[in-house]
Amino acid sequence: MPSEAASDGILPLYPTRTIFQKPIMLPFLPEPSLSYTQQNRTAVLLLNLGTPDAPTADAVRPYLKSFLSDLRVVELSKWLWQPVLRGIVLPFRAKKSARAYEKIWLEEGSPLAVYTARQAAALAERLPGLTVRYAMTYGNPSVANVLSELKAQGAGRLLVIPMYPQYAASSSGTALDKVFGQLLRQRNQMSVRTVSRFYDDAGYIDAMKNHILRYWAEHGRGQKLMLSFHGVPQKHYDLGDPYPDECRHTAKLLAEALELTEDEYTVSFQSQFGRAKWVTPSTQDLFGKLPKQGVTELDVFCPGFLADCLETMEEIALMGREQFYEAGGKSYRYIPCLNDNPDWIDALVALAEENLDGWR
Predict the structure, then answer these.
(1) b or e along 255-288 (b: 16 or more beta carbons within 10 Å of the residue's beta carbon)?
(2) Pick from 324, 328, 329, 247: which is nearest to 281 by CA?
(3) Which of 128, 162, 257, 354 could disulfide-pair with 209, CB 3.0 to 4.6 Å?
(4) What is the DSSP letter of 23?
(5) Which residues contact 83 (CB under 8 A, 6 or more apart)?
């Protein structure tokens, strides 16, 4: 706060009065007893959103509570939002979400966890000498536990890659918050590098192009390709979140790589929640409109999701198909996410190596 001497518009070099904000003090976590040479190993951490441990309401409820309590996800006062969340949203949405998870659950577990684990394992094989782990922003394995394990293994340098090509405060931002929050509790802090976005990465675009072309070669091709991204509230964009612009740029680069005309693809945003206005056009709205516009053969791909999950497998592959057919559609093809596609693993390796420069 400037002193009275600044009333003429010139701030003094040394203010005569200063109000200090009390720092947030957190208890430091125990540090492993390692020698100097054991404390400088390099690790790579992949971060994804998270998933319940089982497709049951009891497992879904704490996961949703953690997710929907994040102020970056729902930007409302906790005094207004928490009563609604606990009294209305969780009792009903947990049961509904559990039924949805049951439809897509794999033998090995949640698809998101299964495919993220495979990506981490494949990356580890290609980066010998480095420790590669994955963690979830919400749920297990938690960021806190994984970072604690990495610290015990002597990781002193950490590359963090949120598995979201396009940056949004409610996805990449929340993931990185978890990491930085743990750094506040480290007495001997790690050196950290982050990859907050890679929406225009050439390897990522090329992997999607090859993936889609292979799918078309095997299953045929529709009249139009829908590129569906997870949505965000319009308010987030108005306040400076770059996510919708980065999504549209990714779509443009992918369409160019596939040599599509503007009439051969469309960009949309899915998974709207609540009554607030969201970025448009809505994926669900287009499922009803496109058949009436003469598009009866539709292919759908989700570039913003690097691993299949509830939002792609249930919302798009299953529910989307029903909505499109009910509106008069004749042919609907959902193109799976990149998952552990070899081309995507190549791109992920290149992305990691670029950001590990000087650490290997």
Answers:
(1) bebbebeeeebbbbbbbbeeeeebbeebbbebbe
(2) 247
(3) 257
(4) P
(5) none
